[in-house]
Write a sequence for this structure.
C-alpha cells in the first residue's frame, strides 16, 4: 500500500489510500476486506478489475467509482465517465449516485455490460495487443468484422439452445449476448430495444445472419437503432438465462474469457451502487 494521499477538489480535500493489486482476484479481496473504512472505493483498471470490485461490493450499499484504465473501458463508456483518469476522478467526485443490476454467473462472478458467445468472444481472443494500443477500442470493431466474415464463409454458426425463465428456443446463431446495458462504445452502437441497466431483468440478443449481406444489415440496424422485426435478430427478456451449445464453446463477460458453455446467468437487481458523472440538464 502506498502512503495516504490528499486530493484537492474545489474547497474540500479528499483523503485516499492507494493499494496496488498483485494477482487476479486481488481487487475483490481488497474491496471486500477494506470497503467499510471508506466512503467509496475506486477501481482503476480494465472492466475485469471494475467487476471484481463490483462483485465484492454487491448488496453492501457501499459506493463504487469505476475509473477507466483498460483498452475497452466498456463500463466507463456506458456510464459517460471521461476516459482521462484525472477528468474521471473529478467527474465522479462531483457526480451523483446510480444503482444498476448485475448479471451473476454460476461461479459467482458478475458482469455489468454483457456476457455471451460468438463473435464477441472472437474479438476478445483474436485482437492483438499492438492493434489495441494503436487503435484502442476500434481494434475490437475491426476484429469483429473479420470474425463475422470467417464464420459466415465457413458456415460455422453456433448450434445453441437458449432458455429464458424456463422457455427454451433452439437454433443457429453467430452471436448470443445477455445484455444489461443496451448502448455500447459511448452510444455508438445499441444492441436492442429498451435495454435498461436498472429494470431487474437481462436482455438476450440472438443474431443469426445467413450471409455477409445479412451481417451488414444487422450492423446497420444496430447503428441506426432500428429494431423492427427481422428474422436474423431475436430478443428475449428475463431474470434467469441458460445458454447451451453443441459443441461447447468459449464464453466472455465484459470482455473477459470465462470458460466454456453451458452458461447459467441470473440477474441481481440494483445490487451495486455507483458513482457516475452528473447529468447535464
Amino acid at each position: 500500500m502506498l502512503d495516504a494521499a490528499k486530493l484537492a477538489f474545489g474547497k474540500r480535500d479528499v483523503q485516499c489510500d492507494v493499494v496496488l493489486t498483485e494477482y487476479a482476484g486481488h481487487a475483490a479481496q481488497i474491496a471486500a476486506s477494506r470497503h467499510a473504512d471508506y466512503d467509496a472505493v475506486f477501481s482503476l483498471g480494465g472492466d475485469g478489475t471494475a467487476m471484481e470490485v463490483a462483485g465484492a461490493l454487491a448488496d453492501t450499499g457501499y459506493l463504487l467509482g469505476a475509473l477507466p484504465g483498460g483498452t475497452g473501458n466498456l463500463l466507463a463508456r456506458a456510464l459517460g465517465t471521461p476516459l482521462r483518469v484525472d477528468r474521471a476522478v473529478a467527474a465522479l467526485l462531483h457526480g451523483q449516485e446510480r444503482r444498476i443490476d448485475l448479471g451473476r454467473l454460476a461461479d459467482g462472478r458478475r458482469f455489468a455490460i454483457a456476457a455471451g458467445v460468438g463473435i464477441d468472444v472472437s474479438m476478445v481472443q483474436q485482437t492483438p495487443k499492438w492493434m489495441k494500443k494503436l487503435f484502442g477500442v476500434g481494434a475490437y470493431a475491426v476484429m469483429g468484422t473479420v470474425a463475422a466474415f470467417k464464420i459466415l464463409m465457413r458456415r460455422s454458426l453456433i448450434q445453441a439452445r437458449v432458455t429464458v425463465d424456463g422457455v427454451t428456443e433452439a437454433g443457429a446463431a453467430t452471436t448470443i449476448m445477455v445484455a444489461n446495458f443496451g448502448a455500447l462504445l459511448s452510444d455508438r452502437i445499441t444492441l436492442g430495444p429498451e435495454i435498461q441497466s436498472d429494470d431487474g431483468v437481462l436482455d438476450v440478443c440472438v443474431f443469426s445472419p445467413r450471409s455477409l449481406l445479412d451481417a451488414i444489415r444487422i450492423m446497420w440496424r444496430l447503428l441506426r437503432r432500428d429494431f423492427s422485426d427481422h428474422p436474423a435478430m431475436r430478443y428475449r427478456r428475463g431474470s434467469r438465462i441458460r445458454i447451451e451449445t453443441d459443441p461447447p464453446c468459449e464464453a466472455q463477460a465484459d470482455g473477459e474469457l470465462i470458460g466454456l458453455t453451458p452458461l447459467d446467468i441470473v440477474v441481481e437487481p440494483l445490487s451495486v451502487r455507483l458513482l457516475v458523472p452528473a447529468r447535464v440538464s
Q: What stands out?
A: Helices lie at 26-34, 47-57, 74-79, 85-93, 119-126, 129-135, 138-154, 212-224. The chain has two domains: 5-104+271-276, 111-267. The radius of gyration is 19 Å. The chain has eight helices and 18 strands.
